[in-house]
Amino acid sequence: MRFLSRGRAEGQAKGLLLAGAVYFLLVSVAHMTGIKLPVLFIYYSLPSYEYQDRIIGFLTFGWSVFFYMTVMSFTRRKLGALVIAGLVALVMLVIINLTTDFSGFPVSVEEVWFHVGVLVLFFYWLLLLRSYVMFR
Question: Is the predicted pLDDT of residue 54 greater than 80, yes or no?
Fold first, then answer.
């Protein structure tokens, strides 16, 4: 297996983490302001309560800070922790989608955007995993 130089692997990981920090910040702003957009809201077509959106808003702000702080104080161990957390999050999103009966909601779920979002997050996670594995 060909390893990337330490500087190149770290640079790629930091770029991905910074993109993740920006994404979570956008999710936070969208939830705090109630602006429902596909991919920033997992189930954007479903109604939600303001308190739910605010909880998600401050939690995703925290994730944005975690990603940004990992960029500012980078270690392979921190990157590994985010890779593991990302995998758990992806698996849980899929489990939630497979086990939830959405027929009881007053509007239909736009599953296409859910699948697009999960697919994008999966490829993002694969790139982070690659950076972790290739990092010497």
Answer: yes
Residue with tokens 């940004």: 68
- Phi, psi of 41, rounded to the nearest 5 degrees: -115, 125
The DSSP output letter for 41 is B
- pTM for the model: 0.84
Who contacts 68 (Cβ-Cβ below 8 Å, separation ≥6)? Answer: 17, 18, 21
The residue extents of the domains of the chain are: 6-134
Tokens of 49: 């309560």
CA 53 to chain centre: 16
Is residue 40 within 8 A of residue 30, CB to CB? The reply is: yes
Cα dihedral 82, 94, 111, 103 sign: negative
Q: Is 38 helix (H, G, I), strand (E, B) or coil?
A: strand
